[in-house]
């Protein structure tokens, strides 16, 4: 059986997301100013993804604002052979998820709020004192 | 409609075959999937559990992405896309037929590996379908044969979907005494302890069943083992970085200096030092 880090660790939360949602292959948690926090990565360069996540979410928020379509939920980039999704984790962090062509988007949207909530809880300890 | 009272998905498909149903069966579950029926025959199956025809053709590089998009632009109804791909010389009719039919069997196999949930019928949705389609009876029998074969040669196929194989150290491409086919080598190159057989199928653009058989073979050769690694958890804090001189907590928020305003034809106010124009 696979050895999974405890769910209260950030790595454990990211690994658990990969195991619960079919098609999730890598994920990167970063700060809103584009710095890497932790990554469950394989082929991507986590620092680059962290930097681009900040830009992606920033630009997309402005786009949502400008076009008047309500608050931004998540950014989904559908590509030739996969997906990249960026979601905000509270006010200070971002989660970027790379998925393959068969990513179960419905399952991702079902599972991601809980994942974001778990990440948020762990990150809250950073400013608790 | 008798099909609605069916006990399970195979029975449902048999009922719909008798009715000559053209449309979509959406099966919920993990992963669940979408079965496209044309005149009662199974034309295509889309599931997150196995690559579709599109995935197989594009991921493997069999068809170039740009050429694919160009053909898609000429034909809005995906049902008829196959003919255009052949007409454009991107793939042979026979090869496309094989790939489409293989994807149907593979999709059915992937969906059979987990207990299906409920289903609902809906209207026809465009899909890259195999012509004329696969008989539901044949699909059910082949799926059962595959599941039985895996159960015999490995164990519960549901378990095999969860393994994350890793290459055995020293099983590089030049390992003496073992000659691998390119296909097996391709699988071996893609195992990394993170990918499940399904992930490998998507990464390679190959069928899930075929990848599972290759993995069993590679394990028998002691070239891969089922394993996962536990990642260490050390990370930097996300707390706002303190400045060199910590500000008092009741200090007002730092004043944000707005960017210089652009003026039509007036140039930037930030560049007053620049030589002025003659106007």
Automatic annotation (TrEMBL), chain A:
Q: What residues form the membrane-spanning segments?
A: none
Name the source's superkingdom: Bacteria
Annotated Roadblock/LAMTOR2 domain residues: 11-99
Query: Which Pfam families does the UniProt record give?
Result: Robl_LC7
Under what name is this protein listed? Dynein regulation protein LC7
UniProtKB/TrEMBL annotation, chain B:
Name the residue ranges with Pro residues bias. 243-257
Question: Where does the record place Low complexity bias?
Answer: 233-242
- The record's region (Disordered) falls at 229-279
What is the protein name for this chain?
DUF4388 domain-containing protein
